[in-house]
Amino acid sequence: MLDWNDLRYFLAVARTGSTLAAAKHLRVSQSTISRRVTALEDEIGVKLFIRKASGYSLTPRGKSVLPAAESVEAAALSFSDSIAAEARRIAGTVRLTTVESAANAWIIPTLGLLRARYPDLRVEIMTSDRNLDLLRGEADVALRFGEKPTEETLIVRHLIDMQETFYAHQNLVAELGMPDDLAEIARYPLIMPMERDGTINRWLIENFSDAKIAHRANTLSSIIASVRSGVGASILPCLMGDDTRGLVRLLPPIAELTTPGWMVTTDDARRQPHIRALIDFVVEQIQLSVARSPAHLAVVQAA
Predict the structure, then answer these.
(1) Structural domains in the chain?
(2) For a 10 Å CB count at each end of the chain, is N or C smaller?
(3) How many angstroms separate the CA atoms of 122 and 11, rounded?
(4) Cα–Cα distance, 274 to 263 (Å, whole number)
(5) In this structure, is the dihedral angle defined by the CA atoms of residues 87, 89, 92 and 95, taken in order, positive or negative?
(6) Closest listed residue to residue 9, CA positions, set 36, 44, 29, 31
């Protein structure tokens, strides 16, 4: 079977008229060109070039096979171009996991823009307070909050620092009054997360050991709904609390409760064009959100 590289060498010499020029064009040695052209002639049993001191010229048989060689070249280039175009085409399904609040705030509202930009890109959003295992293929990309993921094989980028503080419904604030400091929060019944060992619960226990607990909920959306119902006050991300109609921020952000956010994926996943496109899109949307609400968030430029 003919070696495609031998045809490349043949075509280069036929077009340039010399092995030296062909070697420069193909960025190989002149001896390689000469050797491979001779090997091609020996394999097909046909003399393709007349060799003179002034250069190479095609024999009649060489001229007759030139169109066929050019056809092979065109087919090979077309195949290569098709592979490259497929690699560039943003298409496929990406599975993204994050907490419900981040999905509702950043991902779901921008799906229309994402589809307009990449019509063939599909996103499966899995909201969960549990960290799905990216290394086992449970998801392709994760937007996580809290301590930095430590698995060495994960690709982790610090995206954002989210501030949090107390919020209550405006009717409850009218009834109980605006607190002047942290101590006065004690007059509000509190809505607590179900996760008793979580950062917020631990902080609340340390600072409000005698707090009146209205009830507990296991998702942020449930806590927000409870605060909107006027049941009590709760700690919420400023991003969510400030944008929720009827809620009042009771105090400035609490420094100890600032929560870092991380974009997490694997090296194999981020090398796939459609997954990389989604990652870049999500980072862009988060940065735009931060730019619209500079008082609520601090952002770290993604690498």
Answers:
(1) 4-88 (1.10.10.10), 92-162+259-299 (3.40.190.10), 164-257 (3.40.190.10)
(2) N
(3) 44
(4) 16
(5) positive
(6) 36
